[in-house]
Design goal:
Shape: extended
Largest sheet: 4 strands, antiparallel
Number of helices: 1
Strand order of the largest sheet: 1-2-3-4
Strand content: 15-25%
Helix content: 10-25%
Number of domains: 2
Structural class: alpha+beta
């Protein structure tokens, strides 16, 4: 089961901003090592609440975070393991920055 958590750090405070450790709305770019608080939006939790009750889920033993996309100040982004930047000739297209490393299955035999 997956419950999405979407958050952004805008230049101006908005309802979907993440929060600083002190409880203020985070504005601007995340800095290296900076920590923000995010939460499941109320409407998403209400939607999933019925499913959780149907399966009699009362407590969780484990939570997994699955980061799918990170957007950077220079308009580059990391999405599903691939880095890209906007195409200067076509604003609706992106150019891959680096190809993902191929994983090789190597077996060790005696």
């Amino acid at each position: 089961m997956g419950i999405p958590i979407h958050f952004r750090t805008y230049t101006n405070p908005a309802d979907t901003n993440s929060m600083t450790q002190h409880g203020d709305k985070k504005t601007g770019v995340l800095q290296p090592g900076e920590v923000v608080k995010v939460k499941v939006r109320d409407q998403a939790m209400r939607a999933w609440g019925e499913t959780l009750r149907r399966y009699q889920v009362e407590d969780l033993d484990r939570v997994t975070l699955d980061l799918r996309a990170v957007y950077f100040h220079d308009q580059s982004r990391w999405m599903y393991g691939q880095e890209s930047r906007p195409d200067p000739n076509n604003p609706h297209k992106r150019i891959r920055i680096s190809a993902p490393e191929q994983k090789v299955n190597q077996r060790i035999s005696d």
